[in-house]
Model the fold of this input.
Amino acid sequence: MKKIILLSLTLFFSIALLAQKDIENAKKYLETKITKSNEFLIAKDKQQVLNVDVVKSAIIFNKTEDQYNQQSILNCYLLKNGATISAFQSVDDIINTQVFIKALNPQFTLKTPEDASKLRLVFLTLAKDDWGTKRGEVFKKDGTWCFVKKLNFEKLTYYKVSTSDAGKITKVEEITESLDVEYLPDVAKDGDYGKKSEEISASDKELINKELKKVVKEYRFTLKPLLIKGLSGNLKLYEGNLAALNMFSTGRIDCENRAFVLAEQNNKYSIVTSKEELLNNQNFLQALMQSYTIKNEEEAKSFEALIDQIKPAEAKDKKFYKKDNVWCFVRDKFFDDSRGILVLVDNAGKILHIQQFDKITDLDFVRMKTHDPNFKLDYAFKLVEPKDKILKIHHKKGEGYVEISVNADAMNATDKSIVSVIDGEIVDSTSVGNVEAKFTHYISAKQLEDGTKHTLKYLVMPAGCKDPRKALEVIEIKADIVYR
Done:
């Protein structure tokens, strides 16, 4: 008995250690998804207004390749004067304080339109992420220089810059008000005060990265196993979160919007933004296909129970049914449109393809069938008129037509178009996804050169392709102009 207990404890701790090692390896992978970027917005040696470099820095967690799934650990602005660097959370923390005044070049004065043009470009560069019309415009109010930050819904936001009699800047105020002004055209000049990434020295990068380590007090990943009942194989799933704390935080670690799911299989990792997004993850779909067959309704219920864990369904809309060799699992409805998951199976119930759709249509069932290697798509591309393959156009009546019948569902589901060719020149094409079952092409005598024996071709073409040699189907007829 003691041996059995000892063996059980040994096995338990071995599994726990292995699971911990898996999590540690996963966290190492997540660290590789952290990137830093430093953009020199304003370089001290490229302008005469500021006596410092202004750097926009960011530390980003790249969940996926999609830029919209990047999560910010830190966004800040750095003022660099030699080896001294100060960090600020926003541009407003710089411009609207004495920080900006202290950062000014002691030799700079604001007296002339040329001076205003230089200062304008500094403001425009620092506030470049703001949107709105009239950005960068300049005007004077009661003799004081004013620089427009943005105009939104008749509200004008601008920097009012006060100066001494000698032209030294003493104060910068940001003001928002309804105001009709006359802009000064001779100061709205553009330029570039920044540095390209290749111009940033190694020593500057080192200084900046040291400062960023001070600004970011802490960030950490937490992972816990995500168990999906019914999923077999060696795919491991984790629910993850990123928590970050920096010197601008209010004292708590902000976890908002940083949740994700991590998938690992054979030391290869992928990240999705939520459990529902697993249905778009190829590793997960492959594991799902290997875990299940769907030969009957009982197995369909079992598969439905698994996807309920991933993408819960609305009870009133939830159902499944089979159409040909495609199972449809409805999750919910948007008005009359069903949304859910289609599963293609072969005759033995083996899953060949899984895909979710926001609006399930008849075309989607055809699209699913194209993933079956044994499925032969028939475009049913057949000539209706002229039956004898000779189109005769009277030179006075001036018009004839060609009619072709086609399997519109097959065409539209696979993004094909019909291209019309006269004497080797493409003259028309249907739009992808809008092919109708009856295709009619009208031809005027003016489109044909004088004489007879013209050649008309109608081609089934892949989307975006204009090379007749790559046509999937071809109908060829002759056209003659009749003079009597």
About this structure: Confidence is low (pLDDT under 50) at residues 5-18. The first helix runs from residue 2 to 31. DSSP finds nine helices and 24 strands in the chain.
